Each structure stands twice: as C-alpha cells, then as structure tokens.
Amino acid sequence: MKEFNDTKEKPDNQDNYIPVDDIESSGFQVNNVVLTNVCKDPDSPGCKECLCQYNRLEEARFWSRIMEEHALFILLGLPCDQSKHREKAKFFINLFSGLRKRLDEACKLEGDLLRDLIEAVKAIIEFKAELLRHNIECRKAPGSNYPLLLDHIRREAERFLSLLQKPVPQDSLELLLEQEAFWLRIMKEHIEFVIHLLDPSERELIEQAEAFRKTFSRLLETARDLLSMNEVRPKNFNTVIRFTQDVVRNTTQLRDFKAAAFELTILCELLSIVSTPLLLDHIRREADKFLSELEVLLPEVIKCHSTLQ
Ligand SMILES: [Fe+2]
Ligand SMILES: [Fe+2]
Question: I need a labelling partner for 77 at 20 to 30 A (CA). Which of 102, 173, 233, 278 fits?
Fold first, then answer.
C-alpha cells in the first residue's frame, strides 16, 4: 500500500475527477465546529451546560458538496434506460451546485438561502428513499447503487437536515457519543463498500479492509453501549475518553487508507469497479470531518465530564 498521508499534496490530475471546487478551497476539514460557552472548571455549574454550537454555515458548505456528489454517484450507478431517475440525479447536481455558490457568498445561513437549502435536502432525501424503495421492491433494475449505499447517503442527508432544522446546542458528552455512534456506522459502511468495489485480485487491500471492518464493527458496538449507558447521566465518564482516543487512532488510520486508495486510483494502479475516484476522496473527506469533530469535542468532554486533566 502506498504511503499517502498528506492529501494537501494534491495529485496533479486530481481535478480531472473533481467537477466542483478543489479540496483546499473548501477549507472546512478542520476547525469546522465552533464552540461557545467553553468550560474552564470541571466542577463549575457551567459545565453542566457546556454547550457546543455548530458553525452552521461551514456545516452547510461541507454537506452541500457531499449532497452534490451523492447525486453524481447515483447518476453513475443508474442503468442508462432509467432516464427519469437520471434526469432527476442531474437536477440535484445542478441544484446543489447553485446552492454551494450562494453559500460561498453568504455570511450567514438564514432567510431564503436557508429555506431553499432545507427544501433541497428534503427533496434529495425523498429521491434517495424512492430509489431505495424501488430497489427493495425489485421494481427497477438496481444498476450499481447498492441498497445499503442508498440508505447510507439517505442517512447522511437526514443528518444534514437535522443540523439545518435544529442546530440546538447539547451537552458535550451526549453530543460526542451521538457523533461517534453516527460516524462509526458511516465509517464501517465505507469499508464495506470499498471491499465490494475492489477487484477480487486485490487480495492484500481486501485483507487490510477486512481488518478495518472488524475494528470499526467493534467500535460501533461499543459506541452504542456507551451512548446507552450515558442515559443515566453520570457526572464523569472517563471510559469515554479512552474509547474516543482509540476511535481517533483508528479513524486516522482509516482516513490514510482511503487517501492511499484514492491516490492509487488516480495513478491507475488499483483494480476496482469504483465509478469515479471522487468516491474515494469523498469518503476520505467524511473521515476528516469526523476527526475534526472529535478534535473539538474531546477536550471539552475531558474538561467537563472526566476526572482526567
Ligand atoms: Fe457521503
Ligand atoms: Fe459516507
């Protein structure tokens, strides 16, 4: 496996595969979450309300690009005789492309822009759900859009919608555990998609991916257990800190694996049925997004919900 730990060194021909803006110009892979009401003292009453507020504009920019790319992946996976769905996928590519331009120029997420964005996300959720229903009911030829992929991108859109509709600050520990349960499922599924898209002859990479799948299945199960235990509202939960450090370590490795797979595909050194290398860059960006959220939340949880300093 090629070492490729720094995607800031963008391969020369990468833009051939990225129809939208480049990775750097998006600029929200780190520090895309803004904290307010930062706690200084773990025993202070303020820690009970240690709230985190997302920078909604940056979130919207990140997720709108993701939505545009989902529509592209759907299009690439649809059989050529499903012209109605293909047209609809193109419609969403254009819709989110236009919204992204408006988001780039906006200083605040409000008014018509927010309304249009919510409507667009609701519409793409319904489109993904419709395709999934058709697939489950065997009403249309499935093409190469796996049902789990359609469900996966539908869930990502649901998350975006909930961020737009109720970006309500929560307790940092609860927020951390919720994000871990959400993202670890996403990370596990990314690995499953990669395994099913690699050529069977890519045995070494499939073996590495299998090891990741086992690790992330285990982490997801633990995250769900911890989320459930947190319902009793413990004042301190040191185990979550240790667990999160483990999640960061493993997600960083997975992120590097995705970046390396992207580079190999760009260089035409990988055998697969991946429809576009952009898919590998897309899942790498989602891993970076998860890491950036952990980077912000973990110190808050250490301060407010642990006896560790
Ligand atoms: Fe996605
Ligand atoms: Fe994803």
Answer: 102
CA of 111 to the centre of ligand 2 (A): 29
What is the rounded average pLDDT of the residues 243-271? 98
- Per residue in 272-306, pLDDT (tens digit) is 999 999 999 999 999 999 999 999 999 999 999 99
Architecture of domain 55-166: Up-down Bundle (1.20)
CA–centroid distance, residue 69 to ligand 2 (Å) = 11
pTM: 0.84
Domain ranges of the chain: 8-18+29-36+169-309, 55-166
Among all ligands shown, which has an atom nearest to the Cα of 63?
1
| Alpha helices per DSSP H over the chain | 23-26, 56-77, 83-105, 111-136, 147-165, 172-197, 203-229, 238-266, 278-305
CB within 5 A of ion ligand 1: which residues?
66, 156
Whole-angstrom distance, CA of residue 198 vs CA of residue 181: 26
CATH 1.20.1260.120 is the classification of domain 8-18+29-36+169-309: yes
